Each structure stands twice: as C-alpha cells, then as structure tokens.
Inverse folding.
C-alpha cells in the first residue's frame, strides 16, 4: 500500500481534478482522481473492481454520491486503508431527505444553487464541468441515488478506519443522513465530524482534511 497516495472519488456530475492544483498545494502527496463518469460508466457498484489501483492508496476521499458507492463496496476495503467520506450518503431518498421526483428533476445548475457556500467563480466552474456529461450520463447517477442504499450487512470485523464528515449547513446531503449510519458508528474505528458552518461545497472541507 502506498502511504504517500490519496485517491479522490468524485460525486454526481463532478470531477475533483478541477481542483488538483489546490489539492497538491495543500496535501504534498501523490494523488489519483476518479471522476464522475469513471464512477458510473458501468455501475457505481462496480467501480472498485474497475479501478483496482484504488486499493493501493493509503487514503481514499469520497464526496457525496461517491460515498454511497464506496459504502456499497465496504466489504472490499483493505483493513489498513483510511476512508474519509465527505457529505456521506446512506439513503438519499430516506425520510427527511429527497423525494425521488425532485432527484429526477435535478440539474447541475439546481445542485450548484444548493451548495450555498461555493464562491461564484467556483460554482460556475463546477457547472461548466458538469455540463460535459450527457443527459443520459447525468440521469444514470440520479437513478443510482434514488434506487440504492448503503449496504451495512457486510461490515468488516477488523476495524474500519473511516471518518464521516457532515456539513451542518448542507442542503444536498442533510444532517438527517447521520442517523442512518448507526450500524457503522457502532463499529470500531469509525469517527464522525459535524462541521458547523459548512455546506456541500468540497473545497470548504480542505482545511478540515488538513487538520
């Protein structure tokens, strides 16, 4: 396992590598990026097997929809690997969260408007990048968010080394999701952090990751 490598797995309509300059400045390591289409081109449930080198990274950072895909591959996580799940999702359409009809109607622009803490230039850049994906590609991720739930039936018993980071001001992944992680939080090696003044915007969490 490469102790100096981080893998970043992007959320819906996202490509975290658009922030790679800042990431390399903040975290002087080797970085690998999995963009949205890498995640959903077959099925998010299969992305781990399609990207076997992820298992070599010491740390994996997942954002938003990527956290759901990671959790559905939890039984494949190497014991010594650390997962940092930002804005984590267990069941996107659970009570107190999203209705399926609202998810199906989502667009990059409507999601960007809910990110709240995103600077205008950063939000516009994220939307511009998101529009590279076709309507069919975007719909594949929305269908996944509607239909899939985290699978806690196969939780490894050898310690998890997982950190869940929620933003109290997140309007895309509301704090109500936290209650759904009870089976995971009962395990050894799981830490939860709730950031008082953060929403959904990934860059807002870079300072937290560096602490």
């Amino acid at each position: 396992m490469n102790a100096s490598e981080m893998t970043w797995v992007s959320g819906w309509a996202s490509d975290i590598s658009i922030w790679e300059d800042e990431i390399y400045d903040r975290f002087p390591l080797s970085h690998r990026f999995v963009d949205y289409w890498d995640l959903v081109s077959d099925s998010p449930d299969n992305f781990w097997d399609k990207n076997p080198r992820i298992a070599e990274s010491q740390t994996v950072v997942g954002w938003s929809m990527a956290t759901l895909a990671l959790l559905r591959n939890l039984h494949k996580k190497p014991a010594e690997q650390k997962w940092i799940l930002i804005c984590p999702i267990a069941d996107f359409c659970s009570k107190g969260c999203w209705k399926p009809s609202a998810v199906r109607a989502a667009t990059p622009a409507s999601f960007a408007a809910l990110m709240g803490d995103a600077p205008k230039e950063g939000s516009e850049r994220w939307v511009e990048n998101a529009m590279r994906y076709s309507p069919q590609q975007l719909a594949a991720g929305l269908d996944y968010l509607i239909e899939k739930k985290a699978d806690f039936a196969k939780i490894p018993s050898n310690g998890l080394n997982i950190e869940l980071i929620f933003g109290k001001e997140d309007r895309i992944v509301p704090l109500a999701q936290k209650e759904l992680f009870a089976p995971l939080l009962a395990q050894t090696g799981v830490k939860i952090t709730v950031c008082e003044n953060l929403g959904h915007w990934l860059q807002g969490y870079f300072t937290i990751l560096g602490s």
